[in-house]
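Quick review question:
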C-alpha cells in the first residue's frame, strides 16, 4: 500500500518508482479504507444484515459484478501523512508487511474507488440496497433465487446520489467482525498489525480459535428506520456462551463482545507477536493460550 513518493513504491526505487501509479493517486484509498469482510449474500436475511450495517458511521459497502460484497471502514490510517499522502512508517520495521508487499502496479483500490460505480464494483448506500432488495427474488425460505442484473444496476444507479438523512438518535458503540479462522501464519498476525493502524480498531481475542476485529463507531437511527441496535457493547456472563457460539459460526457481525475477551490495541502488538513462535516458512508453531496472552501482553506489559 501507500508509499512515500518515489522510493516507497512497491519496494521499487529510482527510475522504476518514478512512474509509480501512486503518484497520480492522491486519494490513496488503500490507506483510507480498511477492508473488514468479503461476503456473499445468499438470502433476504443476509441482505438485511448488510442494510443494518449502513446504520453505523464509517461503514461502506461495495458490490462486485460477481455478487461479492466488500465491507469497509472509512478511516485514514494513522500513519498516512495528510500533507503528502505518504506513509510515515516507510523504511521502519513497524511498517506492516502487508503494506510493504502490496504492489501498486496490480492495485485494485485505485480503479475500484475511482467513482461510486466502476467496472470493478459499486458503492451501495441505503437507497441502492433498498432497490436491490425490492428487485431480488426469493424462495419460500428467503434464499435469493434471482439477483438484479449488474448492467441494469449500473444504468439505474448512474446518476443517483445518496440523500443526506439526519439521524434521530445516535449512540457510541462497537461493531464486532469475527475472523473466519484464527491466525495460523505470520502474515495472518501481520494483517492485524495493519488493521490496528486504523484509529478506532481493536483486536478482540475471545478464545484461542475465536478472533475478531472491533470497530469503534456510532449507531445512527434515521427517521423511519425500524432497525434497532441489537445489544450492548459487553454481553452479560449468561449470554457469553451463546455469543461464543456465534463467533465460531458464520456470523457476519455483532454488537456484543464477551467481557472475558482480550482486547488489544496497536501498542500491544509487539508483545502479542513475541508470544508466538514461527517456522522458517512463517507458519505458527507455538500458539499461546488466552491466559498466557493476557498475562504477557496486558498484565506484565504494563
Ligand atoms: S490505491 Fe493503489 S495506486 Fe493509489 S496510492 Fe494506494 S497503492 Fe498506490
Ligand atoms: S502503514 Fe498505513 S499509511 Fe502506511 S502504507 Fe500501511 S496503510 Fe498506508
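Suggested answer, residue by residue:
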Amino acid at each position: 500500500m501507500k508509499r512515500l513518493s518515489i522510493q516507497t513504491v512497491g519496494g521499487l526505487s529510482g527510475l522504476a518508482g518514478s512512474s509509480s501509479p501512486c503518484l497520480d493517486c492522491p486519494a490513496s484509498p488503500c490507506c483510507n479504507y480498511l477492508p473488514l469482510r468479503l461476503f456473499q449474500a445468499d438470502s433476504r436475511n443476509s441482505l438485511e444484515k448488510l442494510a443494518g450495517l449502513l446504520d453505523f458511521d464509517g461503514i461502506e459497502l461495495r458490490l462486485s459484478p460477481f455478487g461479492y460484497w466488500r465491507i469497509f471502514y472509512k478511516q485514514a490510517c494513522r500513519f498516512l501523512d495528510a500533507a503528502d499522502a505518504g506513509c510515515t512508517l516507510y523504511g521502519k520495521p513497524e511498517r506492516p508487511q502487508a503494506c510493504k508487499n502490496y504492489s501498486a502496479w496490480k492495485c485494485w483500490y485505485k480503479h475500484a474507488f475511482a467513482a461510486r460505480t466502476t467496472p470493478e464494483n459499486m458503492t451501495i448506500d441505503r437507497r441502492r440496497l433498498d432497490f436491490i432488495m425490492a428487485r431480488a427474488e426469493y424462495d419460500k425460505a428467503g434464499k435469493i433465487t434471482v439477483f438484479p442484473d449488474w448492467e441494469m444496476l449500473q444504468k439505474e444507479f448512474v446518476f443517483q446520489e445518496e440523500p443526506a438523512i439526519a439521524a434521530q438518535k445516535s449512540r457510541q458503540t462497537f461493531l464486532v467482525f469475527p475472523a473466519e479462522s484464527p491466525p495460523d501464519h505470520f502474515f495472518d498476525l501481520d494483517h492485524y498489525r495493519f488493521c490496528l493502524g486504523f484509529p478506532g480498531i481493536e483486536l478482540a481475542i475471545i478464545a484461542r480459535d475465536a478472533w475478531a476485529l472491533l470497530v469503534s463507531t456510532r449507531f445512527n437511527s434515521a427517521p423511519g428506520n425500524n432497525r434497532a441496535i441489537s445489544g450492548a457493547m459487553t454481553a452479560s456472563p449468561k449470554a457469553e456462551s451463546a455469543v461464543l457460539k456465534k463467533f465460531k459460526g458464520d456470523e457476519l457481525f455483532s454488537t456484543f463482545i464477551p467481557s472475558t475477551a482480550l482486547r488489544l490495541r496497536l501498542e500491544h502488538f509487539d508483545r502479542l507477536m513475541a508470544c508466538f513462535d514461527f517456522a522458517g516458512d512463517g507458519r505458527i508453531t507455538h500458539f499461546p493460550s488466552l491466559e498466557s496472552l493476557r498475562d504477557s501482553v496486558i498484565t506484565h506489559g504494563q
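Why it works: The chain has two domains: 6-39+60-112, 170-299. The CA atoms of residues 175 and 255 lie 5 Å apart.
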